[in-house]
Amino acid sequence: MVPGSGDGGERVDSTARLPSQVARPVPLTKQHQSRPRSRSRPPALISNEPRPWTSLFKAPIGSPDLSLEFFAPEVQAEKKIAVYEIDDSAELIETWSMAIVGYVVGLKISFFPLSSFIKTRWGTSAFDLHMLENGFFVCKLYSEEDLQRVLEGFWTIRGHPMILRRWSPDVRLELDSLQSIPLWVSFQGLPLHLWSRRFIAKLCSTLGQPLYIDKTTAAQTRLTFARACVLVSSDEDLPNEVFYHDLEGNTRKVHVSYSWKPQRCKSCLSFGHANGACQQTPKPINKIYRPRQMPQQQGEPPLMVVEPVVTQTSEHFDSQG
């Protein structure tokens, strides 16, 4: 008989656990004590006022000012035209005042060979080089001394001359700008009383647009020749002598030499290639004659005629008919 199972006896819980099976509270470790309790975020505030669509494109607070303002274009023949003014380039002068614009005549050069050339031949490692799609490049230097030294030199890459100019807002980075290029010219045996910058500019003006003289000419430490950079045009000849009048009205001559004489095309009036290599020169029309039978009335003998059926201006011909 089980104790407590009778009437009036104490009821015993048959599910009672042994002392080793009683659940005990688990002490919290430092990791559990330091873990913050998860809290639900408060709901975002929704404004009832409508926001303009343009507000989505504003720069975030603290970012540099990259905004643009609206300028009303001119309207001509139902076309909207933006107008360039000299003030539009004012902010660029400080950034690119130490930059050189260059072009290698007759050679399409890539970034790494040109960068290596600048390091080894120009002797400078502090520069920023930018290649443009039309073959020009822009090299930004960080030393006025390096910039002047590079501009005063004559440089070639694989035998191809390099045209260099200091950047300014009026420098055009276009291939048709090769209709005028800067050249270094030397006036040999110039008398001492003609070594003024003013008269050297007059001599340069007989060749083109005077640009500047080199440091040695400015300091007059070399009196064998005066050297200056001149912007020459492709439609003008490069003579070996220039002339001037002295105080008595006598005509005197000065011998001129050039750092190099570029090839000049008389067809397109630009430098960089000779007449025979010009792509704009029209090629002679070549004709191929083939006999063709003309339709005749019934009973008449066939009539054969010879006429051009193919005309091409290139070296390759495509048959027609």
UniProtKB/TrEMBL annotation:
Region Disordered, residue ranges: 1-51
Domain DUF4283 positions: 94-173
Pfam families: DUF4283
InterPro entries recorded: At4g02000-like (IPR040256), DUF4283 (IPR025558)
Protein name per its UniProtKB record: DUF4283 domain-containing protein
